What does this fold into?
Amino acid sequence: MDPLNPLPAIAAVLLALVSAKLLVYIDPPPKAGRYASIDGLRGFLAFFVFLHHSAYWYFFLRTGQWGGIQSYFYNHCGESAVVMFFMITAFLFISKLLDSRVRPVDWQRLYVSRVMRLVPLYLFAMAALFIYVAIASDFTLRVPAVTLLLDVGRWLGFSAFGEPDLNGVIRTSEILAGVTWSLPYEWAFYLALPLIGLMVGCRAPMRLIAFCAFSVAVITYGLKNQLAYLSFSGGLIAAFAVRSPKLCQALSGRGGSVLALVCIAATVLFLPSAYSRPALPLLAIAFVVIACGNNLFGMLVTPAARTLGKMGYSLYLLHGLLLYTVFHFVIGVDVARTLTPELHWLIALACVPILIGGCALTFRYIETPGIEASPRIEAWLKARLAGQKPKP
It folds into this structure.
């Protein structure tokens, strides 16, 4: 079998949906909200990134080179998924800015919720990364302590200041499958929101605008993927598009589903990369259709899809740890590099229910407590800023 055959990916998606369906009976997803299709889309995108890196690992084990596989399909499982993640981010938060005429943006609440949504799981991933680096370096300090501390600090900064090799462990970023590269772009967008708000009539304190402008300049200085910035424009277009009831009605039916799927298929079949000028408009069209309420023949709003969606951040951030663990510690690199394509993909398939179950746990015990703590932290912060004694 060709290691880049798409059939294992299809089997893996079906297995992921079955695994998520079983979880529905234990922990049902939240009631479908205003953007239920977006919730389901997020889950599929995160899982596609797992498929993307499963294919990467087959060649990495044999060549030592990360990336560059000769498959439009598996490349787009990663690249197009991240592009649409950026679109989701832009859509949701620019929608908040546009809604500010009715409900003003509480900037403090917005940023506290972002920190508590993203930081706890990221710190968990960093703890795992540091443990794996310690194991790989035989618990021996191989670089000056100051260098190690500075490098750790760069990793703790959501990779905005680089992803250096830690303690002499070559290609440290591959322990997490390199997924953290996209997070600085997300944070740059969040910090740019007060600046974007100025263009749509959403007010923000001048001190916040100045701080965010400085922070965006610092973060984006080292970010070189210019087309990644353009990816957010698809979400911006969608945020305006959903305000047209006629357009939403026109795109919500079967014709819209066909249009979105044709755009996605054209991108995957004919374009080598999502970071190209022809690909971005096609993906943006597909995303606008979904944002307008289309559920792609019901695929995006099933309980299983929305269950994957709620744990999408865990799926995205942690799947690399699972693949690294399996190929390094369970099977062993020497054995793994001799596996046939069939056995490699059987192992990847065996990882699917483990990944889904593990991410359900991290969502419940790491992500959810952080989300639930946001109102308390916000209230504490407001009391401190107001010079009041915080309530216990």
Observations:
- The radius of gyration is 21 Å.
